[in-house]
Amino acid sequence: MATTKTHYPVKPHPRGYVALKASNPPPMNGKLEGPWLHAPWSQPFMDIEGPDKPAPRHATRVKMLWDERALYVGAWMDEPQPWAHLTLHDDVIYQDNDFEIFIDPDGDNHMYYEFEVNALGTWWDLFLVRPYRDGGPALHSFESVAPSEPTVATGPTGWEPVQRAVWVDGAVNDGEVVSRGWGVEVALPWSLLRQAAQRDSPPKPGDQWRINFSRVQWRVRWDAAARVYVKHPPAQSEANWVWSPQWAVAMHQPEYWGYVQFSDVRTDSAAASCASAAAATSSPTGADFASAAGPEVAGVGAGGQAFTPDPTWPLRSLLMEVYYAQKRLWDAEQRYADSLSELGLPEPEPHVALAARVQSTEVSFVASAQLPAEAEAAQAVHEPSGAQAAGAGSSGDAAASSEMVTRMYVNEEGRITTRKVKATPSHGTAAQR
């Protein structure tokens, strides 16, 4: 294959958000009161395929907070026609208008959570072992809600059930009432998320988790005779609006999800108070909600702390380009390549990756590359806390540490892993294969 003009990273860095530490738990009423007033709003949602697509018809923003108990997510959605029909837990909620949360704690593209809620508060929770593109499966039996019968622990495995609240400014399923939108609050306990986090839960200040949010929106009209909202036109494709762009109508591409960075700045601190001095102190409603419930901070930082981009992003982008090129080759010829050039991909520039390699068998492949020195130095604050990469020297062994380099890998199932390996001539600056 001829080498293309691909440059890494192929896509821009995903969006990031700095989550303040809640001094007190939010009241969980859907109105984003209390400590939420000190948290910045995210950037407005965009079309799932990116900023070049038409802007959403209605605005959506989110906030995040955390404490030693839970990760808190708050959202506000402008909506003149709030409607929802599904009332059973674990129904396919996106058949209604909904709000969705996706979380991959360790950023390896596998073992992640999905939560969905509609304007009636109906909840769908599931767990993905792998994305659907890699065979899943989606575990619909995964539960974040309270068990139906008492158990010896809070939940069947000792986790605390999720808390959620929905508030509608107006009325659900009533086209004769003026409505302005709906708010969502969700408390996701660390005892629940740590089941597959593979890192410290709760996180340490400075840690970053991968996360994204989606809003599914259908066009409806009010049927005055039947007194219900109905989808109009009946045959339509839903709109998908997201916080961080997915570049395709595909939420299950975890490599493009955004980042939440956990801050040790508390919501009752002077730094947080200064940032929210212009925010209203009373409960906002409707169109005033987004402006009154908290400040917009460019970046999106909070409490005087800026979001720090992931120094591994260019290398991650390279590895995922290899993954997708290998999938295309397998679909066409039922084989995997063992070089970048065979895939039509250029060698990465030294600031992106060093010593890139592709190895394949009849049914699998592994592509890997070394993190450049500048990114290696910045990586210390992004490494998963509470876990030591395989092959790394002890924390007290400076000599061993100086001989170790970070190498990242992707396999045929799209899983990205990171390892500390001993520096050798093959891990130098020259790209390989």
Automatic annotation (TrEMBL):
Region named Disordered: 376-401, 414-433
Molecular function (Gene Ontology), one example: carbohydrate binding
InterPro entries the UniProt entry points to: Carb-bd_dom_fam9 (IPR010502)
Transmembrane spans: none
Residue ranges of domain Carbohydrate-binding in the record: 29-119
Pfam family, one: CBM9_1
GO biological process: carbohydrate catabolic process
PANTHER family: CARBOHYDRATE-BINDING DOMAIN-CONTAINING PROTEIN, SIMILAR TO POLYHYDROXYALKANOATE DEPOLYMERASE
Protein name per Swiss-Prot or TrEMBL: Carbohydrate-binding domain-containing protein
Species this protein is from: Chlamydomonas leiostraca
Taxonomy of the source species: Eukaryota, Viridiplantae, Chlorophyta, core chlorophytes, Chlorophyceae
